[in-house]
Design a protein that fits this description.
It contains 1 helix and 2 strands. It is mainly alpha-helical. It has one domain. The N and C termini lie far apart (about 75 Å). The mean pLDDT is about 75. Keywords: Membrane, Transmembrane, Transmembrane helix.
């Protein structure tokens, strides 16, 4: 923490962070501009869309590998009765 320094706007001097107290930050107020809000909103939407697309891609990949692992057998070859919906005994 001793290596971190803060620039002071009044005299452009540098002060170690450890020398500052809570009173030093009382008048600090961050305000976001319209551009900042748009970046946050766009980032949220982009991440949500990317997550949905990744989910579809992964689900499709799992589905393909499941079909490959079954060896392309149809339902009749696996022992299912198409008329009653149960297994053939």
């Amino acid at each position: 923490m001793e290596d971190i320094e803060c620039s002071l706007p009044q005299d452009r001097g540098r002060v170690p962070l450890s020398a500052l107290s809570e009173d030093s930050f009382r008048e600090c107020r961050g305000t976001l501009s319209l551009t900042d809000y748009l970046i946050v909103i766009f980032s949220g939407i982009a991440v949500s869309v990317a997550a949905i697309l990744a989910s579809f891609f992964l689900a499709s990949t799992v589905h393909c590998f499941q079909r490959i692992s079954k060896g392309g057998k149809s339902e009749e070859e696996e022992g299912y009765d198409g008329q009653r919906g149960g297994r053939i005994r």
